[in-house]
């Protein structure tokens, strides 16, 4: 493995970890970090509604569901996105 491949691998892993941490902190933050702002804002709004509704039992359930979904989806989006392009898509040098 070349040094450049090792550096890219480390960056990819740290991006996945940071995405997961942001999603754990608050649903939608991980999506915003990886560039899916629209989905992130929607999840953030639904999570905030869930927090507001926490005064009623259903809010805690809504918040937990949104939180788990946001964590799962943001991490899988990183694996499906730009961070893991194949070598054949690398730009050619001059």
Q: What does it look like?
A:
It is a single chain. With 94 residues, this protein is mostly helical. The chain starts with a helix and ends in a 14-residue tail after the last helix. It has one domain. It is 72% helix and 0% strand.
What's the topology here?
Blueprint: H1 3-25, H2 29-33, H3 37-52, H4 57-80
Helix pairs in contact: 1-4, 3-4
Order of helices and strands: HHHH
Helicity level? over 70%
Q: How many separate helices? A: 4
Globally, the shape reads elongated
Percent of sequence in beta strands: under 5%
Secondary-structure class: mainly alpha
Low-confidence stretches: none
Amino-to-carboxy terminus distance: 23 Å
Based on CA atoms alone, the radius of gyration comes out at: 17 Å
Count structural domains. Answer: 1
Q: Please count the beta strands (DSSP E, at least 2 residues each).
A: 0
Oligomer: single chain
Largest β sheet strand count, sense and barrel closure: none
In short:
This protein has 94 residues and is mostly helical. Helices cover 72% and strands 0% of the residues. It has one domain (3-84).
Question: What are the main properties of this structure?
Answer:
94 residues, mainly alpha, 4 helices, 0% strand, elongated
């Amino acid at each position: 493995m070349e040094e450049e491949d090792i550096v890219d691998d480390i960056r990819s892993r740290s991006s996945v970890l940071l995405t997961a941490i942001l999603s754990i902190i608050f649903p939608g933050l991980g999506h915003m970090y990886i560039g899916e702002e629209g989905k992130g804002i929607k999840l953030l709004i639904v999570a905030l509604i869930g927090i507001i509704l926490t005064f009623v039992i259903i809010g805690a359930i809504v918040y937990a569901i949104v939180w788990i979904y946001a964590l799962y989806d943001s991490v899988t989006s990183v694996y499906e996105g730009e961070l893991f392009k194949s070598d054949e898509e690398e730009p050619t040098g001059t």
